[in-house]
Amino acid sequence: WLSPAGARRTIAGGRAKLNEQRVKPAHEVRIGDRLEITLDEETVDLEVLALPVRRGPALLTERQGAAYDAL
Question: Which of these, 17, 15, 56, lies nearest to 34 by C-alpha position?
Fold first, then answer.
């Protein structure tokens, strides 16, 4: 979906909100948080359901189960 660098650029560019607030890229995300991400002309609303046990490749994260739910 978004690489870590792409996510940082999206947040720094003000195109992502956490719980309806603009935040910096290093802001901690918690289970239950709501994300609003705007890419091009489309806005996606997500709720954080889980956090990965550790950082790793996307395939490993997918095996751990869904980390977010589209609202």
Answer: 17
Residues 44 and 37 sit within 8 Å (Cβ to Cβ): yes
Contact 12, 25 (CB under 8 A): yes
Beta-carbon contacts of residue 47 (< 8 Å; ≥ 6 apart): 32, 33, 34, 35, 68, 69, 71
User: In this predicted model, what pLDDT tens digit does every residue of 7-51 receive, in sequence order?
Assistant: 888 888 889 999 999 988 888 889 999 999 998 889 999 898 887
Q: pTM score, two decimals? A: 0.68
Q: From CA 49, how far away is CA 20, in angstroms rounded? A: 17
